[in-house]
Amino acid sequence: MFNMRLNLSRKKRYYALAALAVGCLLAGVMAKTHFAKTTSKPENLPVVRTQVVQPVTARQGYSYAGEVRGLLESQLAFQVTGKIIKRNVQLGSVVNAGDVLMQIDAKDIQQTVSSNSAQVYSAQSQLRLAESNLSRYRELLDSGAISRAQYDQYVNAYDAAAAAVQQAGAQYTQGANQLDYTLLKADQAGVVSAITAEAGQVVSASQTVVTVIQDGEQEIEINVPENRLEELKAAEQLHITFWALPNMTLDGKVREIAPMADPTTRTFKVRVSLLNPPPTVKLGMTATVSLAGGAAHTAFSIPLSALYQTGDTPAVWVVNDNILTLRPIQTGPFGNGTIQVLAGLQSGDLIVSAGVHKLKEGQRVKTTGDAL
């Protein structure tokens, strides 16, 4: 009996030890699996677009936006006051010398002309009467029937009648001129570039209603700040490009600089003559006048989206071993969606070209390549 109890006790200890070993084994396997899962989880790094900067040789220059204008522009106005009843031209209309552009209602002026015409007839009738009286009284003077004093009165009446005829004739001519002034005519051949009055509008004398650009030379009108005038005067070469003609570049020269600044913009109007412009250059086109000058220098051109502004200091994110570093830079002129970097970068630097405001110093990132 004792031996049976001893064997039973040994079996219980054996089963307990076996169960403990199996539990420890399972716990070790679970811990190993959990540790493997924890250590094998990949790091979630943001992906950024990058660009390798390359140096370019540039010259410090300035560009001014302008418009193609005619060398001679006529701002036409009526010489009389009245209501416009007809407009015969549109913007861009080609006109010849003598063409009627607008017409004013001439009813009142026509009445004035008719009244002046009647005064002319009346004055001429008085003159004929004075001439007949003078002829008769000259015969009476020769026969001694009247005195010299009486005769002089009729001479004076004749002179007054002759002067009245001249006065009435002058008034009639003036009225006839005003009647002709109701027709606004082009004084030179050209193109209508502006219309500032419409039919039905009452305009005063000397009020500009139509602008005509005369046929002939073309030029570019630009506005230049006062601190760039001397540089513009000394420029040896001006390059002119056109927004509508991207493959064309023309040479130009400064023809005229306004003596006073515009009271609103505080800039000076400058006229740049086009040298041998082709027929494809039309009036009103948008143009850019570029002034190249200064010594050549090395710069980097980066997209505007790569610029990160912190206060007054511009900077870019530079990627080194997938780690971001914010580097201050010195910027230069703007381009078409780009900006020049004069200092702060070196050839071969890898910079972030987009999404720069979502990054932070020392952050690890993934790059998509060295090109946009």
Automatic annotation (TrEMBL):
<dbReference type="Pfam" id="PF25876">
    <property type="entry name" value="HH_MFP_RND"/>
</dbReference>
<dbReference type="GO" id="GO:1990281">
    <property type="term" value="C:efflux pump complex"/>
</dbReference>
<feature type="domain" description="YknX-like C-terminal permuted SH3-like">
    <location>
        <begin position="301"/>
        <end position="366"/>
    </location>
</feature>
<dbReference type="GO" id="GO:0015562">
    <property type="term" value="F:efflux transmembrane transporter activity"/>
</dbReference>
<feature type="domain" description="CusB-like beta-barrel">
    <location>
        <begin position="220"/>
        <end position="293"/>
    </location>
</feature>
<keyword id="KW-0732">Signal</keyword>
<dbReference type="Pfam" id="PF25954">
    <property type="entry name" value="Beta-barrel_RND_2"/>
</dbReference>
<feature type="signal peptide">
    <location>
        <begin position="1"/>
        <end position="31"/>
    </location>
</feature>
<protein>
    <submittedName>
        <fullName>Efflux transporter, RND family, MFP subunit</fullName>
    </submittedName>
</protein>
<dbReference type="Pfam" id="PF25917">
    <property type="entry name" value="BSH_RND"/>
</dbReference>
<feature type="domain" description="Multidrug resistance protein MdtA-like alpha-helical hairpin">
    <location>
        <begin position="115"/>
        <end position="182"/>
    </location>
</feature>
<dbReference type="Pfam" id="PF25989">
    <property type="entry name" value="YknX_C"/>
</dbReference>
<dbReference type="InterPro" id="IPR006143">
    <property type="entry name" value="RND_pump_MFP"/>
</dbReference>
<dbReference type="InterPro" id="IPR058624">
    <property type="entry name" value="MdtA-like_HH"/>
</dbReference>
<dbReference type="InterPro" id="IPR058625">
    <property type="entry name" value="MdtA-like_BSH"/>
</dbReference>
<dbReference type="InterPro" id="IPR058637">
    <property type="entry name" value="YknX-like_C"/>
</dbReference>
<feature type="domain" description="Multidrug resistance protein MdtA-like barrel-sandwich hybrid">
    <location>
        <begin position="79"/>
        <end position="213"/>
    </location>
</feature>
<dbReference type="InterPro" id="IPR058792">
    <property type="entry name" value="Beta-barrel_RND_2"/>
</dbReference>
<comment type="similarity">
    <text>Belongs to the membrane fusion protein (MFP) (TC 8.A.1) family.</text>
</comment>
